[in-house]
Amino acid sequence: MNIHEYQGKAVLKEFGLPVSKGRAIFSPDEAEAAARELGGPLWVVKSQIHAGGRGKGKFKEAAAGEKGGVRLAKSVEEVKEFARQMLGNTLVTLQTGPAGKQVNRLYIEEGSDIASEFYLSLLVDRETGRVAFVISTEGGMDIEQVAHDAPEKILTFAVDPATGVMPHHGRVVAKALGLTGDLAKEATDVISRLYTAFLAKDMSMLEINPLIVTKDGHLRVLDAKISFDSNALYRHRDIVELRDLTEEDEKEIEASKYDLAYIALDGTIGCMVNGAGLAMATLDIIKLYGEEPANFLDVGGGATEEKVTAAFKIITADPQVKGILVNIFGGIMKCDVIAKGVIAAVKAVGLQVPLVVRLEGTNVELGKQIIRESGLNVIPADDLDDAAQKIVGAVKKAA
């Protein structure tokens, strides 16, 4: 689960991290009031969407002006005018894709006198099973670009969970960023607090870009991008309340109600599979035969008929779907349950596109019998390769 920058800064402030004063607003009048409250003489007007690259992004609508999604304002009137231009308009960044995202809220923040900018993030290192820090002197830039052009400017280290952040970690960070004296001490304090926040709130990623040194010689968190482990949200009701459904795909929201692992993609073939590995293999083989998957959907090992029905309905609700592939290898998941779910869903929503079903495993013969006797126009498949070729062929034929 992702949250907005201003929400992330509020979370970090709870742990004593140095963040600038600011206010989230939803209208030009609120922007004006926030600017007067903050006092100026410089304000930053930031679009709040779940995507990076906002400053370099562009609005689709001419009324939003030529500037990006993060703007410096030098008067209260300019703050209000920027808010008028940006709210309700669609911002396109490298991370949103060409469709962009509508800006429904802004963050008005006091300006900062910046002496230098750094990059700092925390994430889970799957190789070591530990929380890792990634730091760089190239703050304010896309870390992917830095990794490509100047990988020597990136330092990564993992923290032993038995000890947590230790003084030597602070010295490593300070040396890498060229910080000395009081700033070096602040760096140790900052990474310690970030690590504490990361663990306490079950974060999966915490990115500060940039972490700045102000001209009066202090560190400050100037941006905050945070993702949380969705499997741990039951422990954090306060974080769940920060969820912004307008930033999420409607189909993904519906899938979450049934505890389905669903991610919308841009293709034409809807997929319903059990098991993440098999689901990824299904997406790959669809691409191999010349089409694109419309979604990743893992119904899980213990799915009920109700969940399978819901999954099928979510797939068919996507207008881009021109064909559906059901690929089930029944272990815990029984093939007859899948078959009953598919039939129930088809009867509820109808079937307007080709449907290929490949079943194997527990109760496979019963599952096949249920589908055969249903009277549905289903294309059976013997294995994954056969299923992929049949659904791709059916979609191309229908086109």
TrEMBL record:
The gene is sucC. It is an enzyme of class 6 (ligase). This is Succinate--CoA ligase [ADP-forming] subunit beta. It catalyses: (S)-malate + ATP + CoA = (S)-malyl-CoA + ADP + phosphate; GTP + succinate + CoA = succinyl-CoA + GDP + phosphate; succinate + ATP + CoA = succinyl-CoA + ADP + phosphate. Pfam families: ATP-grasp_2, Ligase_CoA. Residues 9-254 form the ATP-grasp domain. Binds 1 Mg(2+) ion per subunit. Its EC number is 6.2.1.5. HAMAP family: Succ_CoA_beta. Mg(2+) binds at N209, D223. Its cofactor is Mg(2+). Succinyl-CoA synthetase functions in the citric acid cycle (TCA), coupling the hydrolysis of succinyl-CoA to the synthesis of either ATP or GTP and thus represents the only step of substrate-level phosphorylation in the TCA. The beta subunit provides nucleotide specificity of the enzyme and binds the substrate succinate, while the binding sites for coenzyme A and phosphate are found in the alpha subunit. Heterotetramer of two alpha and two beta subunits. Substrate binds at N274, G331, I332, M333. InterPro entries: ATP-grasp (IPR011761), ATP-grasp_succ-CoA_synth-type (IPR013650), ATP_grasp_subdomain_1 (IPR013815), Succ-CoA_synthase_bsu_CS (IPR017866), SUCC_ACL_C (IPR005811), Succ_CoA_ligase-like_bsu (IPR005809), Succinyl-CoA_synth-like (IPR016102). Belongs to the succinate/malate CoA ligase beta subunit family. Keywords: ATP-binding, Ligase, Magnesium, Metal-binding, Nucleotide-binding, Tricarboxylic acid cycle. It comes from the Bacteria. One of its GO terms (cellular component) is cytosol. It comes from Enterovirga aerilata. GO terms for biological process: succinyl-CoA metabolic process; tricarboxylic acid cycle. GO terms for molecular function: ATP binding; magnesium ion binding; malate-CoA ligase activity; succinate-CoA ligase (ADP-forming) activity. Pathway: Carbohydrate metabolism; tricarboxylic acid cycle; succinate from succinyl-CoA (ligase route): step 1/1; One-carbon metabolism; formaldehyde assimilation via serine pathway. ATP binds at K46, G53, R54, G55, E109, S112, E117.
